[in-house]
Amino acid sequence: MQRQLTILPAGLPFVHTIADKIIGFVRQTVAQHGGCSIALAGGNTPRAIYQRIEQQTSQDRDLWQAVDFFWGDERTVPPEHCDSNYRLAFDAWLGPAGVPANRLHRMRAEQPDLVTEAQRYEQEIARAIPRRLDGFPVLDLVLLGMGDDGHTASLFPGTTALCVTDHSVVENQVPQMKTWRLTMTFPLINRAGQIWFIVAGESKAERIREIVSPTAAGSVPYPCQFVEPVAGEMHWFLDQPAAALVGHL
Ligand code: 6PG
Q1: Disulfide check for 153: which of 12, 49, 72, 169 has CB 3.0–4.6 Å away?
Q2: CA 122 to chain centre
Q3: Which residues line the pocket of ligand 1, CB cutoff 6 A?
């Protein structure tokens, strides 16, 4: 698998470069296809990038009118909760950018019945995205983070969602965090046109080393190692601390 890796200085160079790449990709996709669909990453890393995107496009809010925003995963909290991935992106970017409500496809993970919400969200994605590959909607861009344990979205080590092959979105019990999540699955993520990992911080360095270097025989792959584009492209954006243990590539 051709792995595209970009290593950037930590801080503003990392944030500005990725923000500019996302803006450029959206402009190009909207110009070519009249619209764009993006699945946003949660966690802490993307916040500054989302803020930068909003700042950089404050004079061009029309750009977002043709973009459908999805979430790769969501915590089981209401949208106003400080842990909400929806709130993270809304406060940093989508709210100030005036993205129309009908373009914000929120995972309603606060619902008590996550199975039904997963089915509803799967249908919402299918309605919003006509393009299919092997029966799965084709997102234009999926942004992903990586946890210290090698998880991505809410696809955590040892959880049942890792094995899902016939759904785009599922509920996932995460015993190691004593919680449930909603998450996009590998079949959906892997059929995106572009898959961009955004990973920063020295706490990720050991995992990045293991992932980028050939996996030792017999070791259990980390969840993010199951992200493999079916027909699209994958790019890893790392800051230098996260890439500190990656030898010359
Ligand atoms: C979440 C994210 C998760 C995140 C990683 C990295 O809901 O937590 O979707 O997959 O991207 O845990 O998080 P940080 O960016 O905070 O390190």
Answers
A1: 72
A2: 16
A3: 41-45, 72-73, 85, 145-147, 151-154
pTM above 0.90, yes or no: yes
C-alpha distances (whole Å) from 122 to each of 61, 73, 74, 145 are 28, 12, 14, 21
Question: What distance in Å separates the CA atoms of residue 75 and residue 203, rounded to the nearest whole number?
Answer: 22
Pocket probe for ligand 1: among 146, 180, 196, the residue whose CB has the most ligand atoms within 8 Å is 146
What is the position in ligand 1's atom list of the atom closest to the CA of 74? 7
Relative to the CA of 204, which ligand 1 atom is closest? Answer: 17
- Ligand 1, atom 8, residue with closest C-alpha: 43
Tokens of 189: 């993520």
Residue with tokens 């973009």: 67
- How would you class 163 by CB atoms within 10 Å of its CB: exposed for 0-12, middle for 13-18, buried for 19 or more? exposed
Query: To test ligand 1's pocket by mutation, which of 45, 86, 106, 180 has the most ligand atoms within 8 angstroms of CB?
Result: 45
Residue-wise pLDDT for 96-146, tens only, equals: 999 999 999 999 999 999 999 999 999 999 999 999 999 999 999 999 999
Helix axes 12-33 and 46-56, enclosed angle (nearest 10): 60
- Looking at residue 1, what is its pLDDT? 41
**What is the rounded CA–CA span in Å between residue 169 and residue 23?**
26
pLDDT digit string, tens, across residues 153-201? 999 999 999 999 999 999 999 999 999 999 999 999 999 999 999 999 9
Average pLDDT, the chain: 95
